[in-house]
Amino acid sequence: MLSLRRRTAGEAVFDGFNVLLMLLVCSITVYPIWYVLVNSFNDGADAMRGGIYFWPRVFSLESYEAVLANSGIMKAMGVTVAKTVIGTLAHVFFTAMVAYAFSRRELIGRRLYMFLGTVTMFFSGGLIPTYLLIRDLGLLDSFWVYIIPAMFNFFDLIIFLAFFREIPAGLEEAAKIDGANDFRIFYGIVLPVSMPVVATIALFHGVYQWNDYFTGMIYINNQELQPIQTYLYRVVAQASSNQMMAAAPGGITKNVTSQSIKLATMVVTTLPIVFVYPFLQKYFVKGFMIGSIKG
User: Fold this and answer.
1) DSSP 292
2) What is the CATH number of domain 62-288?
3) Residue 283 pLDDT more than 80?
4) CA spacing 20 to 30 A to 46: which of 82, 165, 234, 277?
């Protein structure tokens, strides 16, 4: 029988302090997001007066109508969705395949490759050599500049590698007895049992692809290939939204301001990736804890 011990007054005070501290931290974290959301649904001209903190004072959807009616934003959103889906699939597949090869102890030069890969985690050539490389590869102003350079990441390889090493060797041995080669084992056995780590890496890279504005800003001049984050960056940096407001029904309206357009654009570009997270959360938590517990 386990004896139930009553909490002391000091423990109760400590627990209460922890609860209040966590509530404070959550409030500080969530409120800026709530502030942007509330102001994006408020009338733009009215929001210029300030004083909106917890709920829209004059509810309006005109800012969202202006955002969704703008063809440039819709094209940028299409580019972002395409590069996120294609880039994530390519990254997960290629990185997992390389990690599976690294998990094979018979791989010649494995220690050298691990050393070289570890060095790249701490040192890089810099922006100018990277730009020259991208130019020489013919990827400037190309959609594939979002995909090919991001197909492999050594940190993600380490996460895959930790999971692959925990797969029972008997599974692969049984498959080899049945005549399966390494490719068949990887596609038919390793990947299906690795869904937690696959979902984790997919979420990591998917969020990166969705939020990446720097690649489009440096390597893309063609506005037809700019992702939504680069589009949003230029809107915020230039502090001008005349083109977007002009695309609103009826042209520029007095109730739509550059600030309300910015806030609405932020919400539109953030919500899709936020909605994806709950579906991957259970795999994300399990995959993120890989290697932390032995037994």
Assistant:
1) T
2) 1.10.3720.10
3) no
4) 234
